[in-house]
Design a protein that fits this description.
Helix content: 25-40%
Strand order of the largest sheet: 2-1-6-5-4-3
Organism: Rossellomorea oryzaecorticis
Shape: globular
Structural class: alpha+beta
Number of helices: 3
Protein name: YybH family protein
Mean pLDDT: 91
Strand content: over 45%
Distance between the termini: 36 Å
Low-confidence stretches: none
Number of strands: 6
Radius of gyration: 15 Å
Largest sheet: 6 strands, mixed
């Protein structure tokens, strides 16, 4: 890793920018090699950076092929950090647009929790959990609560 991510807030900014630019290299630099992620597009979990890379590259490639650009906003951020560990929970909204237009195609807000650790002066995500409320009557995700 060449460029250090010096603050937890910089991790969130890097996340937004990398998704918007569909830049898997910049996106993955925020994650520890032993990252553990829950909510991986139909999988129970994702363990390790190699498995996560496969998911992320697939996601970004699909966006590129469809000509979709995601604009990410992070709201309701609650952050607790000390010298080497940090905990963040927030709402992350993904708004999809056709590349080169202002036409919004769809939008979804997920609840996120991140666990981070400082490694060689850089904050890395070691645990990530994303969730979406479920309608208990039909078992479907509730995408439009926000």
């Amino acid at each position: 890793m060449s460029e250090k991510i010096g603050t937890v807030q910089e991790v969130l900014e890097t996340y937004k920018k990398a998704v918007n630019e569909r830049d898997s290299g910049n996106f993955l630099k925020m994650y520890a090699s032993d990252v553990h992620i829950y909510d991986c597009w139909g999988s129970w979990e994702c363990k390790g950076i190699d498995a996560w890379r496969d998911n992320v590259c697939g996601w970004f490639n699909d966006l590129k092929e469809n000509g979709d650009v995601l604009k990410v906003s992070v709201e309701d951020v609650v952050m607790e950090d000390n010298t080497n560990l940090a905990f963040v929970h927030c709402a992350v909204t993904y708004a999809a647009y056709k590349e080169g237009t202002d036409e919004k195609l769809r939008q979804m807000t997920n609840r996120f929790t991140f666990g981070l650790k400082r490694v060689n002066g850089s904050w890395l995500i070691t645990h990530e959990h994303s969730s979406l409320p479920i309608n208990m009557e039909d078992g479907k995700g509730m995408f439009n609560l926000r």
